[in-house]
């Protein structure tokens, strides 16, 4: 059998170990500890041809599908942002791609997932290919689609698990972007004279962001004597530069009242967050409308409390910042159809947010 040189491909945060050439005893083969070149070749003649025909058909059919794209926040300072893409036809994903960074953070690689009836059939990485059947990885191939031999079963299973988990993670990102959050955990707008049916809803992020916490404390001049302070946040591109801003909604006795709470918008400025806008009297969720003013998305906020008649406020970027008080901004006109994404759509009574340390 051909011996393999130790090789690994780091793809989508996974380390896919190709394995090391070693002499294998007959007992190991009998115990199914390795895949032999012969057993791989016997099934690959059918599997590879069949899968590649399906992959070719999927690529040809992409022009008839709906494409969606998300640009994520850079993983590290100085790195390019990762772009995720998905093609959907008749409600089912056909293909998913994710750009891949080199050691310098340049996104010059691409990983692709091909699906048939919502099941993965091929994972195509920059340096390897992996064929799946019935949710299990059955073949590990090199970049020229030639089967590799002597792959330890453990490596096969680890790679299978990692690839499936990564696909699930990406699909979950698109599901949250499309507002497929659990209804029990989100708050939706209801209005008899304003149409919110084209608004998708997104829950806040759950991961602590220490750099963001530092920016929040600096802006508020917060210290522990002010009482507990929690925050909710979402990252969303507000000005079309493909670099997400961070919208923060705060909760605590020092920032909240009957009319709402303080909210902040930050830009990620290298080593720190830079404040763009500060709001008072904000109630969640906040709609990031598809309409724009001065290059920035308009915001829609619900205003109530303090004895005023409740209404929906339209907040437009003035060229430098958003106006701070939604209660004195123009009302959304009756009969308006709102299109956009409602961020921080959490049911605050069920989600206490992230406590500032």
Describe this structure in words.
The chain has 357 residues and is of the alpha+beta class. It folds into two domains: 7-177, no CATH class; 183-355, no CATH class. Helix content is 18%, strand content 40%. The chain has four helices and 20 strands. Strands 3-4-5-6-7-8-9 form a seven-stranded antiparallel sheet, sandwiched between helices. Strands 11, 12, 13, 14, 15 and 20 form a six-stranded antiparallel sheet that branches. Strands 10-19-16-17-18 form a five-stranded mixed sheet, with no helix packed on it. A hairpin with a 2-residue loop joins strand 14 (260-269) and strand 15 (272-282). The chain starts with 6 loop residues before the first strand and ends with a strand. Residues 1-42 have low confidence and may be disordered.
Which properties best describe this structure?
357 residues; elongated; 2 domains; six-stranded antiparallel beta sheet; seven-stranded antiparallel beta sheet; signal; disordered N terminus; 40% strand; 4 helices; single chain; alpha+beta
């Amino acid at each position: 059998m051909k011996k393999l040189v130790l090789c690994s491909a780091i793809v989508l945060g996974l380390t896919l170990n190709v394995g090391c050439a070693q002499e294998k005893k007959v007992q190991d083969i009998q115990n199914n500890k390795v895949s032999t070149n012969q057993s791989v070749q016997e099934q690959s003649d059918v599997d590879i041809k069949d899968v590649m025909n399906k992959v070719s058909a999927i690529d040809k059919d992409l022009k008839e599908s709906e494409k969606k794209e998300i640009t994520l926040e850079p993983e590290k300072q100085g790195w390019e942002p990762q772009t995720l893409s998905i093609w959907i036809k008749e409600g089912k994903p056909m293909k998913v791609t994710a750009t891949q960074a080199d050691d310098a953070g340049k996104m010059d690689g691409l990983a692709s997932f091909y699906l048939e009836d919502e099941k993965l059939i091929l994972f195509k990485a920059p340096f390897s290919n992996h064929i799946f059947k019935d949710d299990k990885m059955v073949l590990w191939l090199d970049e020229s689609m030639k089967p590799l031999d002597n792959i330890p079963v453990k490596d096969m299973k680890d790679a299978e698990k990692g690839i499936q988990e990564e696909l699930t993670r990406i699909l979950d990102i698109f599901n949250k972007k499309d507002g497929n959050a659990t209804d029990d955990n989100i708050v939706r707008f209801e209005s008899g004279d304003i149409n919110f049916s084209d608004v998708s809803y997104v829950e806040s992020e759950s991961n602590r962001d220490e750099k963001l916490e530092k920016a929040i404390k600096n802006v508020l001049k917060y210290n522990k004597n002010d009482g507990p302070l929690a925050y909710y946040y979402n990252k969303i591109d507000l000005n079309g530069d493909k670099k997400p801003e961070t919208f923060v909604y705060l909760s605590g006795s020092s920032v909240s009242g009957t009319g709402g709470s303080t909210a902040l918008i930050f830009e990620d400025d290298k080593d720190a967050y830079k404040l763009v806008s500060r709001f008072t009297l904000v109630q969640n969720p906040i709609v990031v409308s598809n309409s724009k003013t001065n290059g920035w998305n308009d915001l829609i906020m619900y205003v109530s409390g303090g004895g005023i008649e409740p209404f929906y406020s339209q907040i437009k970027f003035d060229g430098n910042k958003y106006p701070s008080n939604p209660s004195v901004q123009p009302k959304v006109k009756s009969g308006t159809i709102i299109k956009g994404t409602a961020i921080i759509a959490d049911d605050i009574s069920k989600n206490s947010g992230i406590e500032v340390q």
